Amino acid sequence: MNRRHLLLSSAALSSLALSAHAANPTAPVVNKPEVLKGAENTARAQPPLPYAQSALAPVIGSTTVGLHYGKHHKKYFEELAKLLPAATLETDSLESIVRAATPGPIANNAGQAWNHNFYWRSIAPKSGGKPPQAVRVALEESFGSVDAFNKEFTKTASEHFGSGWAWLCKNQQNGKLVVVGTHDAASPLTMASLKPLLVVDVWEHAYYKDYSNEREKYVTAVVDKLLNWRFVEANLAT
Ligand SMILES: [Fe+2]
Known about the structure:
Layout: E1 6-8, H1 11-23, H2 62-83, H3 86-91, H4 94-100, H5 105-122, H6 133-143, H7 146-159, E2 164-171, E3 177-183, E4 194-201, H8 208-211, H9 215-225, H10 229-236
Antiparallel strand pairs: 1-3, 2-3, 2-4
Helix pairs in contact: 2-5, 4-5, 7-9
Bound molecules: fe (ii) ion.
Residues 68, 72, 116, 201, 203, 205-206 line the site of fe (ii) ion (FE2).
């Protein structure tokens, strides 16, 4: 993981989250157990989309999902199949490949494969709105209110420079939830103590057909209508 690619919304958190890893880069990260399971945590095949291609409309149109899932996401798995031995594809989890990869094509394609698997589960048709109680309490403890989280997350995602991702993570050192931006294929999986709970893709391919260059409109609509709070709740509980 290239630390230059990390943008934390809080300087204090940045220091906390990275200090252990910076002091000892070989120190194991403490993100176990693995976040995604089963077909969503394998490198050998792209998992099915968890809903119909048109199910996110009108927030994210069917054409966008078709291209995003059927072209961009699929391509990362096709590239991984060329880069990794068949035995590795069969036996190693996608998350373990992401964690172990050094900067380069394997890290990029495995990172993007996993990030998209996580993205499709982080949003869902007819979602958003009020989070379940456990999530609401955790957000209030870390951000002051759900609205304050929504505002910080939307700002991080909207203002992120270039291609990347906006995450809600749990800092497993202090239990606090934090908003994190990563560039390109980077993932909190490789950052000390951060467990991802939710992600929104802010690469242009995620929104350009529906919103042209107005990324904030895409992010606002996703936050209001598609965030899968049940997925966040499940990730918080493990
Ligand atoms: Fe994407």
